[in-house]
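TL;DR need structure tokens for one chain.
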Amino acid sequence: MSDGPSTSAAFPPAEAGGTGGSGGARGAVLDLPALRRAELAERPFRWAELPDTLRGAPGETAHRLEEEFPTEGFRLTERTGGDSEKTYRTRNLPLITEGRPVAESRAFLSPLWRRLVDELASSEYRAAVAEATGRPLDRCRVEARAVRYGPGYWIAPHTDRADKVVTQLWYFNSEWPERWQGSLRILGSAAADDVRAEVAPLRGSSVLLVRSADSWHSVAPVSEAAAEDRRTLLVHFVDPGAGTAGEPRVVDVRRSGADVQ
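>> reply
TL;DR here they are.
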């Protein structure tokens, strides 16, 4: 994989100083009309799997984003016990905090990834997700991060914090054999085996999750047999007026220029 600049006639460089808003802008990465047309399932809660929300030739944009998925700057976050129902182990690179792209992280991103981050922070993207989900998002802050799951990494069944109104995920693995496990599981309850649907982290696919008291989901532990990290882009719309739980405990702040395995 490469973090270096890349060029394509389909994606000319964004204008200097621009925010990359995607409402029909030249070189936009997100296909907002496709996102607005999302049809959400109602059971076991409101959610949808979306096959194509990226612009450009079929599969081309997702392929480039996979090749240029960041490799540096990730930090391990972990909660493995105690009184919390949600346990997890993941490596994260913050991309947007409190609605603003994280300046320190941009050095780890290719131009295409920077443009995508700018679009995720835009009002056009917010409006498209609000239309797709039927949830008012005007007062929500966008939070986004790139996530790597190595072998043994997981997220236990949970419903997200009350302030996370809507979540969208994109996946960036060109292949993910079933034996590698690590699928997103849509659950009917808090029971880990109450699986109603599974989504493999295959390149270009996206998932929308609308938070509710019943929106149970998890990420199954990645198998030791996995030959590469499970690579995810995670976006939350966070309502600062809603109740929150504790923040994850950072247990490893080492940074590496190599792929995290």
